Amino acid sequence: MAWKGPTSTELQLQGWLHGRDLDVSLAKIRRWREFGALPWPKKRSQGQGRGAASVELTEDTYVVAEALALATVRKQRLEKAILQIFFARPQSKEIFTTSRLPLPEMGVRKALEWLIANDRGSVIVNIERAMSLANSPEEKIDLAIDIAYRHFRTLLRRQSVAEKKGN
Question: Within this chain, do residues 139 and 59 fall inside the same structural domain, yes or no?
Fold first, then answer.
């Protein structure tokens, strides 16, 4: 796909980030937008044609762009940065504590799909890989049960150790 010139909204966002001492390229802003990581203004019909993008960026766009800029300073993958922003306190006892940042659902979904497909430690990925190597349906079930059992036994052991350290 050919590079189109920057839009006024992309330039506006880049200028705002620069004012906060965050140097973010227009290409990076475009990648974030196209990935679905930024809450971006919808195109509105102006009578004819395909519509024009609103020039007004919402406060949500600025907040998420700043978080993405801070999370990707060390050239971190966009998917990892989105998940880092989405999960507010990954060390918390509440596994699914999410941030209050208004990340678009599409970007979070893509990042979670990437994580599930690429995370070597994911029990689901390990079960799927083992099942793909099995020769029969019975062997697939046995492998899935064995991997799930080992995974959850490890989780219970970790929880027990953590509780003992807490007392």
Answer: no
Angle between helices 59-71 and 26-35 (to 10 degrees): 110
| Domain total in the chain | 2
Are 9 and 41 within 8 A, CB to CB?
yes
Output the pLDDT for position 92: 42
pLDDT along the chain (167 residues), means of 10: 77 93 92 91 66 69 89 86 73 49 86 81 80 89 90 87 81
State whether 67 and 103 are in the same domain.
yes
pLDDT 10s digits, 68-85: 998 888 888 899 888 888
Residue 158 belongs to what domain range? 123-166
Cα–Cα distance measured from residue 78 to residue 126, given in angstroms and rounded to the nearest whole number: 24
Amino acid identity of residue 93, one-letter, is K
Same domain, 29 and 93: yes
